[in-house]
Design goal:
Layout lengths: L2 H17 L11 E3 L2 E3 L14 H8 L2 H31 L17 E4 L2 H4 L3 H7 L1 H6 L4 E4 L3 E4 L2 E10 L6 H13 L3 E5 L10 H6 L2 H15 L4 E4 L2 H4 L5 H8 L9 E5 L5 H11 L3 E3 L9 H14 L5 E3 L18 H10 L3 E5 L27 H23 L1 H5 L1 E7 L3 E7 L5 E7 L5 E4 L8 E7 L10 E3 L2 E4 L3 E7 L4
Parallel strand pairs: 3-4, 3-12, 4-7, 7-8, 8-9, 9-10, 10-11, 11-12
Antiparallel strand pairs: 1-2, 5-6, 13-14, 14-15, 15-20, 16-19, 17-18, 17-20
Amino acid sequence: MNKEEEMKEVELNEMDQEKQPMTAETPTGTEKNGCVKVKVPEDTEVKFTGLSKEELMKVAGTPGWVRIRWVLLALFWLGWVGMLAGAIVIIVQAPRCKPIPEMNWWNEGPLYQISDVNEFSDRGLKGVDEKLDYLNQMKVKGLILGPIHTVQADQSSTLELTSINPEFGTESDLQTLLDRAHRKGMSIVLNLTPNYGNGGISAWFNKGASVAEQLKEACIYWLGKGVDGIFLSDLKDIAKTEAWTSIQAIFNKTDETKKIALMGSVTALSVDEVSLLLNRTSVDLFLTGLPDPGKSWITQADVIQKLYASHPQTSLGWSLSGQILGSLASRTPSVPVRLYHTLLFTLPGTPVFSAGDEVGLKKEEKLQAMWDLESQADGANATAKEEHIAVHDFFKALSDLKAKERALLHGEYVSLHSSHSSLAFLRLWDQSERFLVAMNWGSDSVTMKLVNEDLPAEGRVRATTNAESLPVDSMVSVEKLQLGPKQAVLLSYPYAG
């Protein structure tokens, strides 16, 4: 073999070695990596077994570790005691929340009077049932219905307090209405005023006890059917009868889940007479027809203060409309009805409205106009319809505030200002948001200089009868509050401690 052939054989041997697998074993127990032989140890893992129990106990018992454990234990208990002491200090120094006063269903929102159910809806009691969603949207808590019983004006022999006049519906219709109203969180009160045909009932009670006894039996009958309360007009006459004590006793028996209400109203009485009658009758809710917006607001502020100071606000009902008083918008036609809404929703007590008040219907307007608001208006009625819609939206906004703000539901009433044509007061509750109410019934602008330790420099507008001059959510001066003619505003400001 010549030299050239030997060189080729060497190259071929080297190529063959490179082609051998890297994991191939050799007789010496080594692996080839290319042309390099590497010795791989059989077991390179190092296991840590730690200290035995005896070794740990021996180390833990040394003085150094004993001191460290005692120091850590002392720090733990010192930290725990410190946190406990801090929590106690915070609890002691934190302002205490006032307990929420006892509230009944008639104190939680507005009540709505439907004196003539056929005028409210041409389907009588069934029609009222169909309008429950409409009423529920306005946060109405209870309906005062009727009277719907059978009677002819000035004829006591025709009086049947436990029988529904067929013109309004049947007892089955009333039961259906009760069931649906209760499911929506609304209560039903029946007006059992005996001689509602002409409103004069004094002679009926003076002749004998028969009418009063019928009234007592009717209360028992309807409450047994699930009615949530009874309403009586001209309470001063009924309260003079011998049956009154037994009538009161019926309502002193409270249901386990829901209290039944005895309500009454009077008109044309002074504030002192109203106060005496409220004490004597002890009704759950008393409507007085006060204040009288036709008189000076210096006098009206005094009326409000006297009633608030002498009686729990849970028994005060404020109503400025009805069969005798007329519609809210007709009391003083020159005053926007939204001023009355502002007053009734913010006084300490329960606002009571008559059907149509929520849209500002006047005496000559029919209740049917309420159900036409969603339809397209013609040119002649467009302006009136727009105004009714604006009044309804304002009513709903105030009702929403009344339902959720503690200061408006049961807060303290603080008088700030009164003049011949203007009024201002505060509603305060514990650490909740505060509300300032200001109204000007006059034809001239007024500037109210309001002083109270609780007042800030500015307040936020929550509701206003004139959004152009006092836009909602804007900040206005409280110390010198300016109101234009026929204007009202509801301001709020936070609790400052």
